[in-house]
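Hi R.,

Here's the chain you asked about this morning:
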Amino acid sequence: QVRAGLEQAGWSFEQQLRLEWSDAANDPARYASLARAVVARRPAVLLATENMTTEALMNATQELPIVVIGSTNLHQVLDAQLRPLANVTGVTLGLQRQFFFKPMEVLLQAFPQARRIGLVSNSDNPMVKKDGSGLGPVPDMVRRAGAELFRVYFSGEAGIAAAWEELARLQVDAVMIQPDSPALLAAHARQSLRLRLPAISHHAWFSNRVGGLLSYGVVGRAEFCGRAAHYVDQVLRGRAVAELPVQELYEAGLSVNLDTAEQMGVQLPAALIARADRLIRPQAASTPGGISGKAP
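And here is the predicted structure, written out as tokens:
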């Protein structure tokens, strides 16, 4: 979508531009060195699609313009009017962290009888604070629901299975995946289904693409990329980053994967199903208490 947006703005990828992607393969040890290598090539604009990438690029250069697509770790480089104080601009999911606490709100509504709630966090993510700070209203939300919060950490995709094993050992009733790289969602979905621990993510891919149970988060990824393309276009045309205020774009939708509910044998409230923006394989039978699935 970024490429299409730039072509619509009049740029040619045959004669004027080249779009190159670099992938750290979710390896925390590679982000810094990869960012330095990309910066050394002196591109006209750098694109960052997640917090860890943004952090690595900001550490690697204070000169080259960085355009973010969804990153939220921008507080230290913006003024009160969201104008850049450094070389970073673009589109953010939201600086008020709605993308973080809203999924917990939905999870508690989906499992009102839950008394043990798990939170799984990537310790390599710069937004994750192991001292317990940075959770905003989440602990109070869980406490008001009469439940207890249990937090576990993982490092790299290889550590995800062990983190979910720990959640199972703690006998949690439901899990929220702390906002992180979408590339890790498939691994979370596999462990959630294997251990039959219902979970929610802030990213629609979790339920729509990789088989997770619930997601409450951003819809319209194409719009994010289209707006980011506008920033790239403006920078290429000579606009200074400081003249391009960051945009907050948070349009959330609820997705429920009924096929996964059936495989897990979980029952979800009818009211939750009724307000879902998207249902995946809505074939489970209705019951007086809600929508249920039978374990295989």
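One quick note: Residues 112 and 145 are 8 Å apart (CA to CA).

Cheers,
M.
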